[in-house]
Amino acid sequence: MMEVDIGRHSVLLTRCDGKYSAISNQCSHYGAPLSKGVISGHKVRCPWHGSCFNALTGDLEEFPGIDSLPCHKVKIQNSKVYVSINKKLAASLICAETLRQENYGGRIIMASRDDLLPYDKTRLSKVMNVLSGDTIVLRKKEFFQQYNIEVWLQKEALSVDTEKKTVTFDDGLVQSYDQLLLSTGCRAKGLDVPGRKLDNIKMLETPEDARQIHAASLGCNIVLVGTSFVMEVASYMIDKASSITVVGSSDMPYQNTLGREVGKITMMMLLEKGVRFYMNDHVTEIKGVNGKVKEVVLKSGNVIPADVLIVGIGSMPNSEFLQGTKIQKNSKNYVVVDKYMRTNVPDVFCAGDLASFPLALAKNQLVNIGHWQMAQAQRIAALNMLKKTTELTSVPYYWTVLQGRTIRYAYGEGYTEIVMKGNYEFEERKFLANDEVIAAVGLDYDPVVSAVAERLLSGKVITKKEA
């Protein structure tokens, strides 16, 4: 495959099974050049975040992209390849959108307690001074009107009756359903310590939270509790806050997701920018003055000055409204589904952060993965609602950005060995179990992680020797 510039347009020219095809070269997620990605059969995988597109049609086959790509006409004449630009964009639909894409003509209702149309939550920790929610919504209201999808905002589900097939909302409305998709997600966990109700204790969940954290942190002492994706907030604040301190309960940041070795590198990156770390520690008390945070007291005895305290210690499922139903939940109150995203109750499906689902790569072990790409991949719930039997086969694909450098991670569990390439600022690491690659992580090293994800998805084994 190769990138071809045609005037103001850039297309990706591929040759599959002797046939030439041309689609847009820009990924529909954040515009990454697909020519830098990986092609496998008829599928092209983005080098940045792992979106996949059909090289012949431009159809979206794997998220986090939300649109298919324009497909252009290709003609061979006198041993030369000619591409004719087609300016029409083909839209892809997710979950509710998928129902319309699959020609479902019935009523579709999306109910949310949010006051904003579905938006890109991954941007909240990267562009925290977002001025308007309209700049991060995934679809404008005109899109939902065009496809006749009803969106009910600021309407929270209080209970479900699976016998009568109804949902009761906070305004008293009782809405009947034929099929129900549960996707209420999770909410942030708070600290359970003295002083937890003081002002300027923040959690990042909404665009308004992001704006408040940005405004409150300028020129101030901020303390962040947690060492996973809240680290993006620490990175964002480096040239804005007076001081930044991170408190974590593990040895290294990202230890539970990316491993100790990778976590050490991310810690070094932020240490070089003046961020202070208190690891293997936790908050025991928050002290305030005039109702606002002033100091954070740690178990170790250290006392940290704090004008703003940002908490990112995990999440809990929004599943309380399912109490009294027969819908199965696990010990942590996540909803259990099968590989078709079906619950144990007929006509009730679940997707997104709320779902505990069997992951094929983990030998169908039930997992909960709170990540945007996986939530989108669970659009198959809509296909199964339409009796178009489809299994979940996606490869989890994470990414995070620290100091302008991107870490990408294609998922694997149970590794016993790590193969490293590059210097102390690793370029690439592969995680092995039984001499087979089960995951890969890369720092500014495209497109190796996408290549591994594609191999994992195809079921092909990558041996230690190949790694």
UniProtKB/TrEMBL annotation:
<protein>
    <submittedName>
        <fullName>Apoptosis inducing factor mitochondria associated 5</fullName>
    </submittedName>
</protein>
<dbReference type="GO" id="GO:0005737">
    <property type="term" value="C:cytoplasm"/>
</dbReference>
<dbReference type="InterPro" id="IPR036922">
    <property type="entry name" value="Rieske_2Fe-2S_sf"/>
</dbReference>
<comment type="similarity">
    <text>Belongs to the FAD-dependent oxidoreductase family.</text>
</comment>
<feature type="domain" description="Rieske">
    <location>
        <begin position="1"/>
        <end position="83"/>
    </location>
</feature>
<dbReference type="InterPro" id="IPR017941">
    <property type="entry name" value="Rieske_2Fe-2S"/>
</dbReference>
<keyword id="KW-0408">Iron</keyword>
<dbReference type="InterPro" id="IPR036188">
    <property type="entry name" value="FAD/NAD-bd_sf"/>
</dbReference>
<keyword id="KW-0274">FAD</keyword>
<keyword id="KW-0560">Oxidoreductase</keyword>
<dbReference type="InterPro" id="IPR050446">
    <property type="entry name" value="FAD-oxidoreductase/Apoptosis"/>
</dbReference>
<dbReference type="GO" id="GO:0046872">
    <property type="term" value="F:metal ion binding"/>
</dbReference>
<keyword id="KW-0285">Flavoprotein</keyword>
<dbReference type="InterPro" id="IPR016156">
    <property type="entry name" value="FAD/NAD-linked_Rdtase_dimer_sf"/>
</dbReference>
<dbReference type="Pfam" id="PF00355">
    <property type="entry name" value="Rieske"/>
</dbReference>
<keyword id="KW-0479">Metal-binding</keyword>
<dbReference type="Pfam" id="PF07992">
    <property type="entry name" value="Pyr_redox_2"/>
</dbReference>
<dbReference type="GO" id="GO:0016651">
    <property type="term" value="F:oxidoreductase activity, acting on NAD(P)H"/>
</dbReference>
<dbReference type="InterPro" id="IPR023753">
    <property type="entry name" value="FAD/NAD-binding_dom"/>
</dbReference>
<keyword id="KW-0001">2Fe-2S</keyword>
<keyword id="KW-0411">Iron-sulfur</keyword>
<dbReference type="GO" id="GO:0051537">
    <property type="term" value="F:2 iron, 2 sulfur cluster binding"/>
</dbReference>
